[in-house]
Design a protein that fits this description.
Elements lengths: L20 H8 L3 E5 L2 E4 L1 H20 L3 E2 L5 E3 H7 L1 H4 L6 E3 L5 E4 L4 H11 L8 E10 L14 E11 L2 H21 L5 E4 L9 E8 L5 E5 L6 E3 L18 E4 L6 H8 L7 E8 L2 E8 L6 H8 L4 E2 L2 H8 L15 E4 L7 E4 L5 E6 L9 E3 L18 E15 L9 E3 L5 E3 L1 E7 L1 H11 L1 E2 L2 E2 L10 E5 L5 H16 L4 E3 L6 H11 L3 E5 L2 H5 L1 E6 L6 E4 L3 H13 L1
Helix pairs in contact: 1-10, 2-6, 2-10
Bound molecules: adenosine-5'-triphosphate and magnesium ion (MG).
Length: about 575
């Protein structure tokens, strides 16, 4: 490819409002343009990256028996009404009406279509298992489309769905995907963790997320470097340090003006871990009192999972009405609502609110001095706390979710009547799994993980092109001719080349080369006339190696082999 004829609109300046590095670099390197919030045009270089990722996706999903198909973006409302998601999903779904006023929506995901298809086409256990997949556009009216292509309102997804006769079959299909996903992200050059994830409000049989560590991520995970335990922070468990021992009888103490845990601990000269944080939450069945240790934070998703319902913090008036005291003085003693306490409070003696304005109680023993309805894991796992498996300190990291696998069970097959006849002629629901990957998120995550101050450093397998040939001065006939000849030879050797044949200042061309970040660069400059040599470098190392023009193909091949590993 010749740059002079190509459409690679690089920019000198960062686009306004672009915070994530991948966002800035993808716009500046001429990979994408934003049409509207969360809606992007993929320019030729961006498209090549997506195509390469999609090829890897197809190879790996085909290899586990996946069969590619294409399902529509436009869906009739009925299938979503039948599954219940027409109601459950709120603003994230794009809804519309056709000319006959029939409700329609744009597909956010395709479990319903798969179950609809299976309900019509699968008859017998002999036709199972099946792995169906597509690489198709999804439409979601995301609350906060941001960070460039990391979170957009229209995006591609490779989504696979497995159909099995039973849980054991699903287990196998799930493991096949888990292994294929690891190969996919590895081949795309990502560093990633496989973590336990929340299978959703209704329980569910299990789920994992594939997480690429990056400060640009919107998720957090806790993991244990010692034993490999890893989970999304939404369900990560941890063992906090034991509560420091406290002596003394139970007594009420005046704590005028004290509102926060820090103020309370300071005022009474105790550790925050020797206090109880009391929070009133409102669930659909009424208020519940939630207790965590003073040094801990409540994870609202853990609470919601325990209660199998959405919960919200009570308003200050509701707190006063229910407990007879303002927010800063409430505690569990004498409260007439169910009490849910974090596991860290099972042992120890604490300071808690007295349910009397301006007073606290010392010497409070949970489970002894008041009844705890349920002890459960409700706290946010924090760095340095003990691993739930081996006890060694955990770390907490920010990550980008690049893929996710999910045991659906019969959640969709039952309402949509996707059933089969088993060997005894009995009707049974098909057991399903679903598995998603966003190719654009892979591209952006790869840039987040592989870049420097000057631009992108593409992993070999997903680079838009492989070798950047840069004649420093195209008005020098020998330079241009050598560069063109090298381009032909490299292409003949099976390498993808970009020849920067623009009549631009060398500085501009070098800057653009670093920005676009092709893995290997061949610079044809002054050394050619002096020594008959050109310079070969990798984008990552940036060390020019003088190479005789005749030896370039061999040298590039060696580098390519190393980079492709
Ligand atoms: P998130 O929690 O980030 O919203 P999700 O749980 O909604 O993701 P899935 O529905 O499981 O994601 O989608 C599967 C994959 O599709 C994700 O792992 C991600 O790679 C990609 N993806 C999801 N939403 C978007 C989006 N808005 N923009 C780009 N890619 C996305
Ligand atoms: Mg989402």
């Amino acid at each position: 490819m010749r740059w002079s004829r190509a459409f690679i609109p690089t920019l000198r300046e960062d686009p306004a409002e672009a915070e994530a590095i991948s966002h800035r670099l993808m716009v500046r390197a001429g990979l994408v343009r934003q049409l509207a919030a969360g809606i992007y045009v993929y320019l030729p270089m961006g498209q090549r990256v997506i195509d390469k990722i999609n090829r890897i996706l197809r190879e790996e999903i085909d290899a586990i028996g996946g069969q590619e198909m294409t399902m529509p973006v436009l869906h009739p409302a009925e299938i979503w009404q039948t599954s219940g998601r027409w109601h459950d999903i709120k603003e994230e779904m794009f809804r519309l009406k056709d000319r006959n006023q029939r409700d329609m929506c744009l597909g956010m995901t395709h479990e319903e279509v798969i179950a609809w298809l299976a309900s019509r086409e699968i008859r017998s256990y002999r036709e199972l298992p099946q792995i169906w997949y597509q690489i198709q556009t999804k439409e979601r009216d995301e609350a906060r489309p941001r960070s460039g292509v990391l979170r957009t309102r229209e995006f591609w997804m490779k989504d696979s769905y497995t159909l099995d006769v039973d849980e054991a079959g699903l287990g196998k299909a799930y493991d096949l995907h888990k292994e294929a996903y690891a190969r996919i992200f590895g081949r795309c050059g990502l560093t990633f963790y496989v973590v336990e994830s929340d299978p959703g409000m209704m329980g569910g049989a299990g789920a994992h997320e594939f997480m690429a560590p990056s400060p640009a991520g919107e998720d957090e995970i806790a993991r244990c470097p010692a034993c490999g335990y890893a989970a999304n922070i939404e369900l990560a468990r941890s063992v906090p340090a034991p509560t420091p021992a406290a002596a003394g009888p139970r007594e009420e103490v005046a704590t005028p003006g004290v509102r926060t845990i820090a103020e309370l601990a300071g005022f009474l000269g105790v550790e925050p871990a020797q206090t109880i944080k009391t929070l009133l939450s409102v669930a659909p069945d009424g208020p519940v009192l939630v207790l965590v240790r003073g040094d801990q934070q409540l994870h609202e998703k853990k609470l919601a999972r325990l209660l199998k319902a959405e919960v919200r913090p009570a308003h200050p008036d509701e707190v006063r009405e229910t407990l007879g005291a303002p927010v800063g003085s409430v505690g569990p003693m004498g409260a007439r609502v169910p009490i849910l306490a974090d596991e860290a409070l099972r042992d120890g003696v604490y300071v808690a609110g007295a349910n009397r304005e301006g007073y606290h109680l010392r010497g409070v023993r949970p489970g002894t001095d008041f009844t705890v309805t349920t002890f459960a894991d409700l706290h946010v796992a924090q760095a340095g706390e003990g691993c739930p498996q081996c006890g060694k300190p955990i770390v907490v990291e920010r990550v980008i979710e690049v893929g996710n696998i999910f045991k659906l069970g019969t959640k969709y097959s039952v309402p949509l009547k996707a059933v089969y006849l088993d060997e005894h002629g009995r009707e049974r629901p098909i057991v399903m799994g679903s598995y998603g990957i966003g190719p654009a998120r892979i591209a952006a995550a790869a840039i987040e993980q592989h870049h420097d101050a000057d631009g992108i450093i593409w992993p070999w397998a997903i680079a838009p092109l492989q070798v950047h040939i840069l004649p420093v001065n195209v008005k020098d006939a020998a330079m241009l001719e050598t560069a063109e000849a090298l381009g032909r030879d490299l292409q003949a050797a099976g390498l993808e080349t970009l020849l920067d044949d623009r009549d631009e200042r060398p500085g501009v061309k070098f800057k653009d080369a670093d920005l676009l970040g092709l893995p290997i660069r061949v610079t044809v400059g002054a050394l050619l006339a002096r020594e008959g040599k050109v310079e070969v470098r990798t984008r990552r190392e940036r060390q020019d190696i003088p190479v005789p023009a005749a030896a370039v193909v061999e040298r590039v091949r060696e580098l390519a082999e190393r980079l492709a590993r």
